[in-house]
Design a protein that fits this description.
Mean pLDDT of chain B: 91
Strand order of the largest sheet of chain B: 1-8
Shape of chain B: globular
CATH topology of chain B: Alpha-Beta Plaits
Low-confidence stretches of chain A: none
Distance between the termini of chain A: 107 Å
Largest interface: A-B, 36 and 45 residues
Structural class of chain B: alpha+beta
Shape of chain A: rod-shaped
Number of strands of chain B: 8
Oligomer: heterodimer
Mean pLDDT of chain A: 81
Radius of gyration of chain B: 19 Å
Number of strands of chain A: 0
Largest sheet of chain B: 2 strands, antiparallel
Helix content of chain B: 25-40%
Number of domains of chain B: 1
CATH class of chain B: Alpha Beta
Distance between the termini of chain B: 46 Å
Structural class of chain A: mainly alpha
Chain lengths: 91, 200
């Protein structure tokens, strides 16, 4: 009885194994992609000597504040000229 | 934080190509590849305008949609990046992109088309932040250094703005409210004469 069961199992395996080669891999984009994951910008660059001062690597809020400050101070000259004008005012 | 965006103020751009040079120098971009370029409309005639163009990091990026190997991804800040180890250099993205952002370096003796290269918003790529491998493939990762893109930070007239979309649009709005628009802009009359039909 056991021998018949084993034989049936072996027969099934012998048929199924070659048939497995006829299968097809999924080719849908996104499911089989092997692209690597990227670290978040706010995590900082550990061995980079050019990291700017004024923020803490790994702290998302600190990084966002740094981006905001840098954009406003570096690119909005109306802010900068207002600050310069305030400094230049006679006391 | 909103999405990272570029905005080029055509009233201010003087076609100096400082942004192009800054980008090439910062990322050691290979010969023949321009991640950013300056486009001039109506060159040499009154009303001439220049704008600096690169990858616009689209919210619904057509390059991402057409890539057959799915090498593109979008960061939390809305920056569209790609994995050069997955890219096969087929060029579909360059056909799909309305800005001509994807660039292909020519490699080897027979000028074989290399893997796609484009503006990264100075955010590097899928390698360790600030590593030599990241620099070699994608250039500097200035965002991870707490800086904004080199092109925008180097722009002498601040025509090119880069950063959080809300802040960039706020800066531009303030600017337009201060200086006016069209012929109201300071210096317009000197350059082009008074606009026809203007009242005194």
């Amino acid at each position: 009885m056991i021998a018949r069961g084993t034989l049936a199992l072996l027969m099934t395996a012998a048929i199924a194994v070659p048939l497995a080669g006829c299968g097809d891999k999924a080719q849908t984009a996104g499911q089989s992609s092997v692209k690597k994951s990227d670290a978040k910008a706010w995590q900082g660059a550990p061995n980079d000597p050019y990291v700017a001062d004024g923020w803490k690597a790994g702290d998302k809020d600190s990084w966002e504040a740094q981006m905001k400050t840098r954009a406003q101070q570096g690119q909005n000259e109306y802010n900068r000229s207002a600050a310069v004008a305030a400094d230049a005012k006679p006391q | 934080m909103a999405r990272m965006k570029f905005l080029c103020d055509a009233e201010r751009c003087i076609e100096c190509n400082g942004c192009v040079t800054a980008c090439k120098a910062e990322h050691d971009v290979p010969w023949g590849v321009n991640r950013r370029r300056v486009v001039t409309l109506s060159d040499g005639v009154p009303g001439e305008r220049s704008i600096s163009v690169a990858c616009m990091h689209c919210s619904d990026a057509p390059c991402m949609a057409v890539c057959p190997v799915d090498c593109f991804y979008r960061t939390d800040e809305g920056v569209v990046l790609h994995d050069k180890d997955v890219c096969i250099g087929c060029g579909y993205c360059s056909y799909a992109c309305p800005f001509g952002a994807p660039q292909f370096p020519t490699n080897g003796t027979f000028g074989l088309r290399g893997k796609m290269d484009k503006c990264t918003f100075c955010a590097g790529g899928p390698e360790v932040n600030g590593s030599a491998a990241e620099f070699e493939k994608y250039g500097r990762n200035r965002l991870a250094e707490g800086k904004l893109p080199a092109c925008a930070e180097m722009c002498s007239t601040k025509a090119l703005l880069g950063g959080d979309g809300d802040i960039v649009s706020d800066i531009f709005r303030t600017r337009v409210l201060q200086r006016g628009k069209g012929s109201e802009v300071w210096g317009w009359g000197t350059a082009y004469g008074k606009p026809t039909g203007a009242k005194s």
